[in-house]
Write a structure and sequence with these properties.
The structure is a homodimer of 340-residue chains.
Chain A lengths: L5 H8 L3 H8 L7 H14 L5 H8 L4 E6 L5 H16 L3 E6 L3 H10 L8 E5 L5 H10 L3 E4 L8 E4 L1 H14 L5 E5 L11 H15 L9 E3 L4 H12 L7 E4 L2 H13 L9 E6 L2 H5 L3 E4 L2 H16 L10 E4 L2 E3 L11
Parallel strand pairs in A: 1-2, 1-3, 3-4, 4-5, 5-11, 6-7, 6-8, 8-9, 9-10
Antiparallel strand pairs in A: 10-12
The structure holds a DNA duplex (16 and 16 nucleotides).
DNA sequence: CTGTTAGCGCGTTCAC
DNA sequence: GTGAACGCGCTAACAG
């Protein structure tokens, strides 16, 4: 094992451990000559300070935990890239926890708030419920939410209602009346109102505003995924009076819709308009019209917020909320409805 | 901060810290009555042992570091999912380091092999050079390579030469003679022979075997990315005698080729055949014919190997090498060449 | 400026 | 069976 300790160095350099520690931490009050000797000893012994011991005595870990429904969806990857970029700049290590099911999440919330191992916590998308929030806050560990809502924590979010509105409005302006909405399951097992539910709200609002009646059969939900979305779209297109446009709550689901259209020999956008949400990379490949949200930026902003908290900064509004802008990306999967 | 320590618990339960520690670690020799009292105290104080201190005295961290050119390419995401799955089962935490440039990598290799903070190390794709390997091995920390080669470490790999051969052979059997190969830059800054170079070798071999002359103008390389690939394909298609098939060293690059074909108003596969490598998720969306490699599985195997090493298992062959199978996925971007 | 000492919070001996 | 003391490697506070 890597066994040379600070004491070995001190002995070899003929100084005390305190001095070695000072050299290590660039403390100013060390005579140049002494510093030389110490550094020589360090080099000669190939000594590396033990980070664990360091943490122990400093009470900080230099670790930031990120809880995320990890690699499942491309949008998280984008967000995490943003997070990582910032953390790396500030010399923090990223401990990533992949949370996909309820069990794992419970376990995590139970184990995490030790307050010792992590200096801070970044939670993506699966925000805490009230009980968890309580525990988290009691632990005193700084927490920032990304794409999740809880009044007690600083967070970076988007206006999903607005997003749903934007997408639907776009379709309406194109002349569509028969507009369907498909999404993942709104009542998530995490008992919180998810993004899709808020996008649904925007959809309803745009419809209402344009005087278009909401048709329950035009609204479907299922687990997130291409296949499931494809099936939903399939069902939609088999309707006696099928929609002329489909708004999918995520680009991934929009892909499923595209697949279904192909199955039905429908041309997009001539026969069927499709719009997604997120603007992940694939969206561009597929020329998918979609609502862009700043994924990478959300990670950056969240991480920066957390780091400012770690540095002891306090905020004017007790809990800052950063809202990122949305914009419609008009590619090639939407067009006016077929003339008949 | 979370400040209740083992001493508080001991005091409250009217026992010594040793006893508390025993209760915590389920040590048998604790009287039931005492254990009761201690557990009550633990509950009352909401005490959680400090993992850092625990690591310090136990000499283990329960952390596994993963070094990867992180979120850049979808294929890594797939691999990491596999890794995470296994690690979670064995109660290891995953510390993920995003290494994309040489500077960061140097820094990492300098800092990492402390032998203290990580129980094990998983290196993806960017394998160590001899000097780094030396240092790594000297540190005594168990290392497993995934998709990287170095004779000193156990690794899970694929036969990239075979993969390149498979792809090219498929094209040849379809009747193609004018077959191009595009890839990222073979002489990587990491001074090791990368996957693309080995796939290139397979390409050359298949060509030679079929008696087809290699044409230097049919071989291009540039940085990895859709745009770059698109440009390469563009140049290829402008040739006086353009290829009738293009083999891209990765699916991402194949996407660029598809784009270029579209620009040139070439139908795929009627006018141009395209084959990729990896079989990432998008490949399916795009109906891309490609060479499938077990990405998720590579993560699983690598992590399992590492864990066995951590458990002190030794291996028959000094350094085990797991080679995963490749197979051609025949979708809809390859066909016989245009009849004339 | 620099050596010494006291913890950081645990696990692990020892004696009892 | 159980408590007290020691040590993990390092930083910080205090003398000198």
């Amino acid at each position: 094992m890597s066994s040379t300790t600070i004491r070995d160095v001190a002995k070899r350099a003929g100084v005390g451990v305190g001095t070695v520690s000072r050299v290590l931490n660039n403390h100013p009050s060390v005579r140049e000559a002494t510093r030389q000797r110490v550094e020589e000893a360090i080099a000669a012994l190939n000594y590396k300070p033990n980070p664990i011991a360091r943490q122990l005595s400093m009470g900080r870990s230099h670790n930031i935990a990120v809880i995320a429904p990890f690699f499942i969806r491309p949008s998280f990857v984008e967000r995490l890239r943003g997070v990582d970029t910032v953390l790396a700049e500030h010399d923090y290590d990223l401990v990533l926890y992949n949370v996909e099911d309820q069990a794992k999440r419970d376990e995590l919330y139970h184990v995490l708030p030790r307050g010792d191992f992590f200096d801070g916590l970044l939670i993506l998308t699966l925000g805490p419920d009230d009980e968890e929030a309580e525990r988290l806050q009691a632990s005193g560990i700084p927490v920032v939410l990304i794409d999740a809502h809880h009044p007690r924590f600083p967070r970076v979010i988007i206006d999903d209602v607005e997003g749903g509105y934007l997408a639907t409005r776009h379709l309406i302006e194109l002349g569509h009346h028969r507009i369907a909405y498909i999404s993942d399951i709104l009542e998530s097992p995490f008992k919180q109102v998810g993004a899709s539910a808020r996008r649904y709200e925007g959809y309803r609002r745009a419809l209402a505003e344009a005087g278009i009646d909401f048709r329950p059969e035009y609204y479907r939900q299922d687990h997130h995924g291409v296949r499931e979305a494809q099936q939903m779209a399939h069902a939609l297109l088999e309707l006696p009076e099928p929609p002329t446009a489909i708004f999918a709550a995520s680009d991934t689901q929009a892909i499923g819709v595209l697949r279904a259209a192909e199955e039905h020999r429908l041309r997009v956008p001539q026969d069927l308009s499709v719009i997604g949400f997120d603007d992940i990379e694939v969206a561009e490949y597929l020329n998918l019209t979609t609502v862009h949200q700043p994924l990478f930026t959300s990670g950056v902003e969240g991480a920066e917020l957390l780091i400012r908290m770690l540095n002891g900064e306090t905020f004017d509004p007790e809990t800052p909320v950063i809202q990122l802008p949305l914009r419609l990306i008009n590619r090639q999967t939407t067009a006016p409805p077929p003339s008949r």
